[in-house]
Amino acid sequence: GDSVTQMEGPVTLSEEAFLTINCTYTATGYPSLFWYVQYPGEGLQLLLKATKADDKGSNKGFEATYRKETTSFHLEKGSVQVSDSAVYFCALKEDTGNQFYFGTGTSLTVIP
Amino acid sequence: NAGVTQTPKFQVLKTGQSMTLQCAQDMNHEYMSWYRQDPGMGLRLIHYSVGAGITDQGEVPNGYNVSRSTTEDFPLRLLSAAPSQTSVYFCASSYSQGWNYEQYFGPGTRLTVT
């Protein structure tokens, strides 16, 4: 079945460092891909999404490109801030049906 | 729009007690779901619904019941609480038509079973 695998954390970076969080997926069709962010004590919020191969989703300086050839959707940011400290979830939605599949989450801490 | 709302925010139960976690959305979404979030395990789907009167099991349905009598509401019932059900519970909703619609999440209910 469909699934998402993302790099385990926790990840600790200094402010202004470059961030990459790896995400790969397994799907039989052509899913949509998402990154969600969860700040402490809150629910998940959509960060960005991509709906077809080679699409790039971007928001708040974060980017991810839908790579069908490598079945990946890695999250990147060129210069992280303390306010980016959160848990990041990669997810996919299958193109048939309604179910979402989430990765296990990657905790990011940015230190000044 | 209020989006997805959940009540209560916190709850402590004793083993064997029952309770209902409430979830409501005002976006006219057809698809609603319940997840539990546990450390190191991410989000696991408990039950979901594709419309009023239609529900189905997810990955971890045991010990939970759901019903969907209206489009807006999707309550989750714990029949006889167990310590293994200590978790954070999230309700989510989305449009069911179209593969590219994201899910919207509620703020969560933190449940402790002693």
Folded structure, characterized:
The complex is a heterodimer of chains A (112) and B (114). Chain A has 112 residues and is an all-beta fold. Chain A has strands at residues 3-6, 11-14, 19-21, 23-26, 32-38, 44-50, 56-59, 62-65, 75-77, 86-93, 100-102, 106-111. In chain A, 0% of the residues lie in helices and 51% in strands. In chain A, strands 2, 5, 6, 10, 11 and 12 form a six-stranded mixed beta sheet that branches. In chain A, strand 10 (86-93) and strand 11 (100-102) form a beta hairpin. The N and C termini of chain A lie far apart (41 Å). Chain B has 114 residues and is an all-beta fold. The N and C termini of chain B lie far apart (36 Å). The model of chain B has no long low-confidence stretch (mean pLDDT 93). The interface between A and B is medium-sized, with 25 and 26 residues.
How is the secondary structure organized here?
The complex is a heterodimer of chains A (112) and B (114).
Chain A: E1 3-6, E2 11-14, E3 19-21, E4 23-26, E5 32-38, E6 44-50, E7 56-59, E8 62-65, E9 75-77, E10 86-93, E11 100-102, E12 106-111
Parallel strand pairs in A: 2-12
Antiparallel strand pairs in A: 1-4, 3-9, 5-6, 5-10, 7-8, 8-9, 10-11, 10-12
Chain B: E1 4-7, E2 10-13, E3 19-25, E4 31-38, E5 42-51, E6 54-57, E7 64-66, E8 76-78, E9 87-94, E10 104-105, E11 109-113
Parallel strand pairs in B: 2-11
Antiparallel strand pairs in B: 1-3, 3-8, 4-5, 4-9, 5-6, 7-8, 9-10, 9-11
- Terminal CA distance of chain A: 41 Å
Judging from the principal axes of the Cα atoms, what is the shape of chain A?
globular
Helix/strand order of chain B, N-terminal first? EEEEEEEEEEE
> In angstroms, what separates the terminal alpha carbons of chain B?
36 Å
Number of helices of chain B: 0
Strand content of chain A: over 45%
Chain pair with largest interface = A-B, 25 and 26 residues
- The radius of gyration computed from the alpha-carbon positions of chain B, rounded to a whole number of angstroms, is 13 Å
- Which percent range fits the helix content of chain A? under 10%
Give unreliable regions of chain A as ranges: none
Arithmetic mean of pLDDT of chain B: 93
Instruction: Assess the beta-strand content of chain B as a share of residues.
Output: over 45%
What structural class do you assign from the helix and strand content of chain A?
A: mainly beta
* Major sheet attributes of chain A: 6 strands, mixed
SSE pattern of chain A, N- to C-terminal:
EEEEEEEEEEEE
Q: Whole-number radius of gyration of chain A?
A: 13 Å
Residue stretches of chain B low in confidence (pLDDT < 50, at least 5 long) are none
Largest sheet report of chain B = 7 strands, mixed
Count of DSSP H/I helices of chain A: 0
